[in-house]
What we know:
The complex is a heterodimer of chains A (about 220) and B (about 300). By secondary structure, chain A is an alpha/beta fold. Chain A has helices spanning about 40-45, 70-75, 95-100, 100-105, 110-120, 135-150, 165-180, 195-200, and strands at about 1-10, 15-25, 30-35, 55-60, 65, 80-85, 155-160, 185-190, 205-210, 215-220.
Amino acid sequence: MIAFDSAAYNYGGGELLSEVSLRLAPGSFHFLTGPSGSGKSTFLKLCYAELLPTAGRVTLFDREVRGLSRDEVALTRRRIGVVHQDCQFLDHLPLAANVTLPLTVAGRTGPVQDLTDLLGWVGLGALAGALPPSLSGGERQRAALARAVIMGPDVILADEPTGNVDWDMSLRLLTLLVELNKMGKTILVATHDLNLIRQAKAQVAARVLRISKRRIQLAGADL
Amino acid sequence: MKLPTILASDPQADRVVPPSGAAARLTGLVAGAMAFLAVFALALSLAAGRLADRWGEALARTATVRISAPPDQMTLQTEAVLAVLAATPGVATSRALSVEEQHTLLAPWFGPDLPVEALPLPQLIEVVETGAGYDGEGLRQRLAAEAPGAVLDDHTRWRKPLVQAAGRLRLLGWVSMGLIGAVVAAMITLAANAALAANGQVIRVLRLVGARDTYIARAFVRRFTLRAFWGAAAGSAVGMIGVALLPRADAAGGFLTGLGFQGAGWLLPLLLPVLAGAVAFAATRAAALAKLRELT
């Protein structure tokens, strides 16, 4: 589904990621950990072709990213739901329109009930008409997660999705990701939250990747 | 991304771009002002064209034979010239101008009290040619043989610079139209670039959720195209009213007073909003796609 083959990324001031070779298999659940600035966000951006590797290969759905046209990148991103650390929205549109934006740009419509259920699940049912600037950090993260999953993507990439929410809401969002994983979706979550990882491992066969010294390795049993 | 598709209403696509900012409003204003000027440039071109045609046609179909001879030979040579002209293929009619007609011709320069009879004026013969025309050189030779004092003036000396001047005036009008179109394109490109730069976050979010470049560009292109269209429509309407209020040609008879539209010519300014829309469409589309290509 997503494969790295000796991939590297260089920002210009030296390599941030080197010799990354791994494969996110369909239906897998991975956590990505590592110190701040170690390259977690960069790795996620490579996973949805916002960045291109400066060496090696990255393959999305069996297509090498460098060979994708701009339209193909757009179509590929419809199969990947992304939750950014700095969740960005269209500030002039209400929350509901932002959450359904992936459907809108794809020319699709979803049942209103699905949207209501989804917003209720992430605890934003009462804020459907609110504008993004009026939302708190935690509400924005939950809205971003709702937007990432509304298209039923094959892959969900989340960068610190529980960074600004309390523990109860974290568990609730984790449950959503676990349920999606059980439906066959591939999940990759970058997080510092070891408790969240432990909680997830109790529910699914989650694997943990750790970035260390510019390389990504499978973490041991210490988690 | 075709123009009809762009103009078709797509409320969802429209909504993804924030409501118009100053750049879009500026587009309407620029298109309106430029259309206003374009109406006058168009009127100038058409009027100059009519003038060139009229001068060209009128002068090309007439000629003058001027007879300078001693008074006792004047009648004889005039009759000889008329006989030659009557026998010349391509000459439709010919007639000698009366003293009164010559007086009328000279009055603007010498005043109405000119004693024409006292002046050694040449006799003028007006020649109107047929559509096929006559052989000018052959006629000159025959006139020289039959009436030594006769000189054929086919107005070439006068016609050429006049028709050239009118033609260049017409060209100037069209060049002005082209420049106005280029300015509209440049201004709309700048405005579109400003709008795209101001909406960087919107574009990033749209790309993130899988929007294609054409989808993103369409929202901007449609907005700018419609702004330019309606701005140009307003500018054209005001310009047409301005042209309609100009003094009529037949009231004063001068060239500048003939600066207007005639008949179906009034329909031409109605094309300006369509042209402005097309220019805005092309300029915004090129700017939007170029800007989007800079993003991953």
